Amino acid sequence: MKIDDTCALIVVDVQNDFCPGGALPVDSGDRVVGAFNAIFRKFDYVYCTRDWHPWDHISFSEEPEYCDGSWPVHCMQDSPGALFHGELYVPLDAKIINKGDDPEVEAYSGFENPELHASLQQRGIQQLIIGGLATDYC
């Protein structure tokens, strides 16, 4: 596979709350960090999505059922759980795409934020490499 300036990397939700010890951990989720750190430099364009929920987000439930509208509190804006994993090297020019920042709207995909699609089009991106955490939902 050829990686050139028409190819972008999208890193999905490598946040503390989705890693071991977090509010919604993915088993061995922290193992993706080394793989991403090894390939970041190969891409001219890197996007990192993140859950970025306000404290009153519609998805939060005191007795979560782990489905739409019923998740434990996770990835609250500016909280330690919402930060990218501490060992993840996020390039300085990476584009950060927030999702779930409207308290009344569930959001699972970075593509729900129109900024992602617009930026990809503006840069002439034709190929995406996508990986990360909680990709069964996000």
Count of DSSP helices? 2
- Order of strands side by side in the largest beta sheet? 3-2-1-4
Tell me about the largest β-sheet.
4 strands, parallel
What is the CA-atom radius of gyration, in angstroms? 15 Å
Low-pLDDT residue spans: none
SS strand fraction: 15-25%
Structural class: alpha/beta
Distance between the termini: 25 Å
Shape: globular
Run of helices and strands: EHEEHE
In a nutshell, what does this entry contain?
The protein is of the alpha/beta class and 138 residues long.
Describe the structure.
12% of the residues lie in helices and 17% in strands. The protein is α/β, with parallel strands linked by helices and 138 residues long. Strands 3-2-1-4 form a four-stranded parallel beta sheet, with helices on one face.
Which short descriptors sum up this protein?
138 residues, single chain, alpha/beta, four-stranded parallel β-sheet
Produce the secondary structure layout.
Blueprint: E1 7-12, H1 32-39, E2 45-51, E3 95-99, H2 114-122, E4 127-132
Parallel strand pairs: 1-2, 1-4, 2-3
